[in-house]
């Protein structure tokens, strides 16, 4: 009966998802229902074996990206194993073995005489997707290889406050930020991946939060800065905000470290400013201070330090907007849980529940005015002000 119930739910959501008015949340619910159906249909052995062998899938994908097998399939497909071997300077038997795996997991299609591209093949050859593969595989696999030694040695210190982080144990630096500072290839992959993530078709913070309503009023004296994007990377969030609300008056300022800002060209209507968010905030009294996917990189102790500099720059009229995951106390979506574990591995940080957010922000001297929920699987928006005196 469980399988029949799961199947009925999948069919219901598949119908809803096919509607022209379907929301992203409907699609996420469909995928969750499909996963539930698979778990209901699998035996325990099938479930655990599938996860045990996931590593083999990832290795085959990384090989294909590095050897440019998928690029050649997109460029010439259908293409034979012998032709792929010739084009990529590879052994034909090896090509055939890797491509058997990629076809089995849907990364390309097996056709008579060779291999043909599909939507996944084409997507995986995009710069952002290639960067994601390099970023996760090349950084996460060394961590996995050292995990048990780390646990059996010094033990797990989630935030690196009394011992080494797992990232330091595997890569020699406290977090991913130290690695990308010293390794240009990792830095390029990180920036390209983060840029691609911010360009996906997902709700923007100003679609979730009523920005027009909140910011349409005439600025008060001394509020010449409309929005400061702190740690904003390439500035895509700020550029999208500017494109949506060109009529809103005030300066738009993008802050990040020189290592990041120097990689990208000028942005129309946006001022670039070098700033380390562990130092005092130089822009005082802005209408909005904005943090996207920043605090999840840091422990509560470090996050309070970051927030203290923003609080000291805010006035009673300033808003702090935090664009980040807000995990439910139970029944968390897989995406949010994945991000939480990833933050532990990469940055000694964490994704937070609503109660964890409120506790952190209260200690920093802020009130949470409202949590604008973006539904399951994507970031929510926390609207904050200085605590009322």
Structural features, described:
The protein has about 400 residues and is of the alpha/beta class. It has 3 domains: about 1-125, Orthogonal Bundle (Arc Repressor Mutant, subunit A), CATH 1.10.10.10; about 125-195, no CATH class; about 205-385, Rossmann fold (3-Layer(aba) Sandwich). It has helices spanning about 1-15, 25-40, 45-50, 55-65, 70-75, 80-90, 90-105, 120-125, 125-150, 165-170, 175-180, 185-200, 205-210, 210-215, 235-245, 260, 300-315, 335-345, 355-365; strands at about 110, 115, 225-230, 250-255, 270-275, 290, 320-325, 325, 350-355, 365-370, 380-385. Strands 5-4-3-6-7-11-10 form a 7-stranded mixed sheet, with helices on both faces. The model has no long low-confidence stretch (mean pLDDT about 90).
Helix and strand string, N-terminal first?
A: HHHHHHHEEHHHHHHHEHEHEEHEEHEHEE
Q: Which range does the strand content fall in? A: 5-15%
* CATH second-level architecture of the largest domain: 3-Layer(aba) Sandwich
The CATH C-level name of the largest domain is Alpha Beta
N-C termini distance:
58 Å
pLDDT < 50 runs, ≥5 residues: none
Taking all residues together, what is the mean pLDDT? 92
Helix content: 40-55%
Major β-sheet, in short? 7 strands, mixed
The CATH homologous superfamily of the largest domain is termed: Vaccinia Virus protein VP39
Task: Please state the structural category.
Answer: alpha/beta
Give the overall shape. globular
